[in-house]
Amino acid sequence: MDRTERNNRRKIMFFAVPLLLIAVSLYGLAYGSVSISLKEIWAVFTSGGSPVHEKIIMNLRLPRVLVGLLTGACLAASGALLQGVMKNPLADPGIIGVSAGGGLAAVICMIIFPEYSYLLPVMAFLGSFLTSLVIYFLAWDQGSSPLKIILAGVAVNALLGAVMNGIMVVYSDRVQAVLPWLAGGLSGRSWHHFEYMAPYALGGLILCVFAIKPANLLLLGDDSAKLLGQRVELQRFLIILLSSFLAGVAVSVAGLIGFVGLVVPHAVRLITGEDYRFLLPFSILGGASLVVFADTIARSWFDPLELPVGILLAALGAPFFLYLLKKRGIKP
């Protein structure tokens, strides 16, 4: 792909992705067990439409859509940053164990200490944060190569999964309350969840702006970045922490939703290239759109059942992951 074609694609994405986000958000407001037309949605926000429709949109669908937007944005940003700092398009907070750390902390909170369930978001973030620290220092040996970080992450992910399963076996009588959260979903998410999540999510996404330049420099390779005066290990560490923070924020509210951080950044990279000035913002908007779109499908296409969005995204993301391995021959 030459520079002219890449620039043209970026211009198209500049207009197409925000329009996609708006369209998906309207789709999320309009469809569910009760379909609401765009005219009726407009009336709710302007002239006070039907009281029934107003309750459905304002109390149920709007907060759910907003939580979905923030969840997708955080997961996609987390994945894009991890892929850049590890120089591997297969890196994802769910694959290398960052999400599993938040999941384990949340399971401990919900099953062993249910009286402290109000601390669930904090516990999930701390779990993701501590897991990222463990992975980073396990991979440290006079530096931390992307390959070592990925291998350490995969091993930690397996260990945390085993511990999580062990806890659920020991406390089998309490597992039922945890299963929907483990599947990943936005069912029952309300203004309370949005108000809690929004400051952390928006703060993390704003910090992503400061990660664009170091992420681009790290793509040049450690030696080249050092020649340009960059503190490579410190920058890699800070970007990993930011990625872990974003993943923890998403996990704390939406549960274990996987593959968003893998699929969206990789798809955007194929269109716009590696430059994080374009890759990161388009990934954020694309991740937000994907989660809301998938969640709307999960709760409207399988009526009267509501499928957790994490299951649907896993069903879509796993084949894509295998495609990357087989078709592109990507190696860690």
From TrEMBL:
Subcellular location, principal: membrane
- Stretches that traverse the bilayer: 12-30, 65-82, 94-113, 119-138, 150-171, 197-216, 237-264, 276-298, 305-325
What CDD domains does UniProt report for this protein, alphabetically?
TM_ABC_iron-siderophores_like
Under Gene3D superfamilies, the record lists: ABC transporter involved in vitamin B12 uptake, BtuC
Q: Which domain of life is it from?
A: Bacteria
Alphabetized UniProt keyword annotations: Cell membrane, Membrane, Transmembrane, Transmembrane helix, Transport
Looking up SUPFAM superfamilies in the UniProt record yields: ABC transporter involved in vitamin B12 uptake, BtuC (SSF81345)
The name this protein goes by in its record? Iron ABC transporter permease
Query: Could you tell me which species this protein originates from?
Result: Paenibacillus thalictri
Source organism phylogeny: Bacteria, Bacillati, Bacillota, Bacilli, Bacillales
